[in-house]
Specification:
This protein is about 70% helix and about 0% strand. The protein has about 350 residues and is mainly alpha-helical. It is a multi-pass membrane protein.
Length: about 350
């Protein structure tokens, strides 16, 4: 690649003075600035947005619940993706070169896989949590306790990290692809090839858990609709608004399920195109153009920045918590006991 010839005189390399350097695909200044702006904005939003989610849930005692602990752990996965993956992917995507060393290339890929799968498992457990809360709201507190939530969180993290590092760290993903790996290997590149068998396993893991979430949320919304009709029917018969404890609990759980359902849909819209392309690409000889791959990757990455926006839009308590954190009131004594569900946060 680095041999000088008249026809290759205009070719730019990632490392001009190294043999075996990857070819660099230059980008004009205008699009380059736009790409950096879009990608950096996504990384910053993922880092600080999810940091606010974690601080809110962990600091304010009123938010200490099994569901919110799952949400905080999900935010942690998105936060770590924003810290360890997205900034480096920004440079790789815009510059078409990897400048962070071969060792971190593997870690970068392992982190990417770990946090992605951790997010999927968290969302799957959250959907199960919401299903139990909707189907039996009064018994729910005794079924989905903080210890159960902790076990779900531990499983999500341990399985995701062990699976990703075992697959990508040992090189099992590239078995029987030695020729392709040799052709892709160059200084300044970070291309990870995954063979058909492991691409299929990855897709099935994604698909099965996605199917579980879809089925659970379908049942949740059917049950929630039936509950709403019963409450409306009762109100029409009695001529007044029903405000029993059971009705208030049901309404709260339906709202939480709706909000988290939006988060699940956003996750599917973000990640499904990437997984579909991965499995199609593996079976058709890796024909996806680089720019298409980068677009799909960044659509998926942006999901980590979307969840805090969803919570801010649907949860008044999160908006109040952000206000207290940003204004520094969270540093006051007894700030952890502030009532975030009252009309106004003081």
């Amino acid at each position: 690649m680095s041999s000088a010839s008249p026809s290759a005189a205009a070719v730019q390399l990632c490392y001009e003075h190294l043999n075996g350097s990857c070819v660099k695909t230059p980008c004009s200044p205008g699009p380059r600035l736009i790409l950096y702006t879009v990608f950096i904005f996504g990384a910053v939003l993922a880092v600080f947005g999810n940091l606010l989610v974690m601080i809110s849930i962990l600091h304010f005692k009123q938010l200490h619940s099994p569901t919110n602990f799952l949400i905080a752990s999900l935010a942690c996965a998105d936060f770590l993706l924003g810290v360890t993956v997205m900034p480096f992917s920004t440079v790789r995507s815009v510059e078409s070169c990897w400048y962070f060393g071969e060792s971190y290339c593997k870690f970068h890929t392992c982190f990417d896989g770990s946090f992605c799968y951790a997010s999927i498992y968290h969302l799957c457990f959250i959907s199960l949590d919401r299903y139990i809360a909707i189907t039996d709201p009064l018994v729910y507190p005794t079924r989905f306790t903080e210890s159960v939530s902790g076990m779900c969180i531990a499983f999500s993290w341990l399985f995701s990290i062990i699976y990703s590092f075992s697959l990508l760290g040992t090189g099992a993903n590239a078995a029987r692809l030695e020729g392709l790996v040799s052709a892709l290997t160059c200084v300044g590149g970070c291309q990870i090839a995954v063979n058909q068998s492991w691409v299929l396993v990855n897709f099935l893991l994604f698909f099965i858990r996605t199917l579980v979430m879809i089925v659970l949320y379908s049942k949740i919304f059917l049950i929630a609709k039936q509950q709403a009709r019963k409450i409306e029917s009762l109100n029409n018969k009695t001529g007044r608004c029903s405000d029993s404890f059971q009705d208030r609990v049901a309404k709260r759980e339906r709202k939480a399920a709706r909000t988290l359902g939006v988060a699940v849909v956003a996750f599917l819209v973000s990640w499904l195109p990437y997984f579909l392309d991965a499995i199609i690409d593996a079976f058709l000889g890796f024909i996806t153009p680089t720019y298409v791959y980068e677009i799909l990757v960044w659509i998926a990455y942006y999901n980590s920045a979307m969840n805090p926006l969803i919570y801010a839009f649907f949860y008044p308590w999160f908006r109040k918590a952000i206000k207290l954190i940003v204004t520094g009131k969270v540093l006051r004594a007894n700030s952890s006991t502030v009532n975030l569900f009252s009309g106004r946060a003081k």
